[in-house]
Write a structure and sequence with these properties.
The two termini are about 15 Å apart. The protein has two domains: about 90 residues, Double Stranded RNA Binding Domain; about 35 residues, no CATH class. The longest helix is centred in the middle third of the chain and has 21 residues. Helices cover about 40% and strands about 20% of the residues. The protein is elongated and about 70 Å long. With about 130 residues, it is α+β, with helices and mostly antiparallel strands. It has a four-stranded antiparallel beta sheet with strand order 3-2-1-4.
């Protein structure tokens, strides 16, 4: 999966104030907010939930073609970014216990130097995954 995806969101001015946000490429992905800023934040969350749900259900993530979108006069198209790793850090940060094996001599050296094994493993995994 690509680390970053961009989807056009249509911000519709609501008669009662605020904004309703829809994603033409993502059926049923709708949210709202009282201000543009709130609507944008809600759109980021809605997009993240939609994409993660598709990934968890092995669905193909739809591509987007923003040039095909037609909007009404008061509507605005704003691109919303979905960053998979940022989303996971924000919403899926619980710790997972892992058991691993290293040579005894390496363990002793690391302990002498007050090395935090969890931090080292996290840093190494992020480097290996280019995150």
């Amino acid at each position: 999966m690509r680390k970053r995806l961009f989807y056009p969101a249509v911000f519709h001015s609501a008669d009662e104030g605020g904004y309703t946000v829809t994603f033409p490429d993502l059926p049923g992905c709708i949210t709202e907010g009282d201000t543009v800023e709130e609507a944008y934040e809600m759109a980021m969350d809605a997009l993240g939930l939609y994409i993660i749900d598709d990934l968890n259900n092995d669905n193909v993530i739809p591509a987007s073609e923003p040039t095909d979108i037609i909007v009404e006069e008061d509507d605005r198209i704003i691109l919303i970014e979905f960053n998979y790793f940022d989303y996971q850090k924000k919403h899926n940060s619980q710790s997972v216990k892992k058991t691993l094996s290293i040579p005894a001599w390496l363990n002793e050296e690391a302990l002498k130097n007050n090395i935090n094994f969890s931090n080292v493993l996290q840093e190494a995994l992020m480097e290996k995954l280019s995150i």
